[in-house]
Amino acid sequence: MKKILIIAVMALSLGAYAQVDPTFEKEGDKVKATYFHANGEKSQEGYFLNEKLEGQWKMFNEKGEKIAMGNYDNGVRTGKWLFWEGDVTSEVNFDNNRIASVNKASKKDPVVSNK
């Protein structure tokens, strides 16, 4: 009985530290990729086209909370990306993989309404 308990505890311990392999699913011309943190939570999700990042990508922290979202075009970051860190949301605009502008807003900032 004692040996079974020791083996069970060891198996659970090893399982907690096991890496989770990414998944790849063909969807039309694109391949949907999903990567995971060591704890099994999703870390990134997006698409590849011709082996380059394409379309919307999302990033998540170890708790499964979304921390970033943006688009790739032929492997190049483009357009508006959003990053969340605590109460702060950053909007970063990319032009040909280069940062064109950055705007930050806090949940504590007042909201302006045009009625």
If you had to describe this structure to a student in words, what would you say it looks like?
The protein is mainly beta. The chain has one helix and eight strands, in the order αββββββββ. β2 and β3 (42-49) form a beta hairpin. The longest helix is centred in the first third of the chain and has 15 residues, at 2-16.
Could you provide a short overview of the structure?
The protein is built from one helix and eight strands, in the order αββββββββ.
Overall geometry comes to: flat
Topology order in helix (H) and strand (E) letters: HEEEEEEEE
What's the helix count? 1
The total beta strand count reads 8
Q: What is the share of helical residues?
A: 10-25%
- Report on the biggest sheet: 8 strands, antiparallel
First-to-last CA distance? 72 Å
Q: Output mean pLDDT.
A: 85
